[in-house]
Amino acid sequence: MGSANDGHIVAAVDIGTTKVCTVIAEIKENEINVIGTGWEENKGVSKGNVVNIADTSEAIRKSLQKAEQMASVKVNSVVASVSGKNIAGIKGHGMTSLSHSKQKEITEIDKDRAIEGATSVPMSHDMEVLHVIPTQYIVDSQDEIKNPIGMTGLKLEVDAYIITGSVTAIDNVKKVISKAGYSTEDIVLQSIASSEAVLYPDEKDIGVLLVDIGGGTTDLALYQKDALKFVKVIPVGGNLITSDLVTLLQTTKTNAEEIKKKYGIVFPEDAAEDEMIDVPDMGSNKVTQVSRRQLAVYIQARVRELVEFVRIELEKEGIDKGMYSGGVVVTGGTAQLNGIEKMLREQMNVRARVGVPIKEKIVGLYDIVSQPEYSTAVGLVGYFVNESGLNNHFLQKKSGDSIWQIIKNLISEYI
Ligand SMILES: Nc1ncnc2c1ncn2[C@@H]1O[C@H](COP(=O)(O)OP(=O)(O)OP(=O)(O)O)[C@@H](O)[C@H]1O
Ligand SMILES: [Mg+2]
Question: In terms of residue numbers, what domain contains 114?
Fold first, then answer.
């Protein structure tokens, strides 16, 4: 762990439909050193939204506790993910006059004023702004400016992508964290967090579509010219494949889930013609058999439909392939399904790859977090580090190794 005591700690919880995944990292010179992870099954979230406060807060508490024990730290506040079908992205435009500042350079205040103008988009009272992401600044007639600070002009404009979420859904995330005994540092859209962990800067520049297929949602994020252009949450995910298998194989959910993970493939030709799989019957000791190729036929139908949903969402928005010529990056637990990237490649006719947290960004425990299910949690840490600019005010100081040390530190803060 090195000279850990001068590092800062960031704790992230990905509150997913199937699990709560925690990553605790120590941040030093922009390096993410993962020092603790926690994983807890979650039954309190449906299709990305918290539907049971008690169950979800208990899963958060246990997941965080495991990560804290592994990291030998106690954290107070966390960065959390949010998803769900109410998430919406709207284009906003803001403007501020600079005439008062004759030949004076554009400052952070001017920038903030323009951004604030961009957030005044019409939205219903049950929605709130989650993220405001500037896509370009315009100073007088010069556009495509990434950062206008220091430039001079008469008028500063900004184009921004505004992401809104349901007030209730966001409140529920804060509530489950508070009930688990922590405070909320920040709430970040799941697809933005996953993008942070798995996309390369070059991909974001030429255009790329992130597809995070979890258990209950498929989250899309499209980047081009290094800016977020589109997000969408489709309220279906890998759990649908499992429930299909329950019906088609007449087995329990646990067995279906296990069969899917162990033998699931998207293309029948990837299995030997004679390969058979044991299927324990529902409610008896009988075991039947299904060919692995037949299993693939069942799975393929649902995966084909999922990819079709993605295609339809892009079409509705008028997004053509030219906007994501860097291809599709699929992550989330369902990205582990053998053949899924091939299906995306074939149906969408673009380059496709499976995305896992990028190694160069991480030191420590990479073996654990290098799975597609960890993309969101790792990305939450990365996103927070970038946004806060490693501002000491936002980050928690590491609190020593023992409970006694933690208490001593707490006491010393008050005397
Ligand atoms: N090896 C595998 N093959 C196929 N599917 C898998 C595999 N491993 C995990 N999955 C599926 O991935 C899904 C869980 O993914 P993930 O952990 O990303 O979801 P989540 O974040 O909890 O949910 P969501 O993001 O939808 O709210 C489950 O449907 C699970 O069955
Ligand atoms: Mg997820």
Answer: 88-166
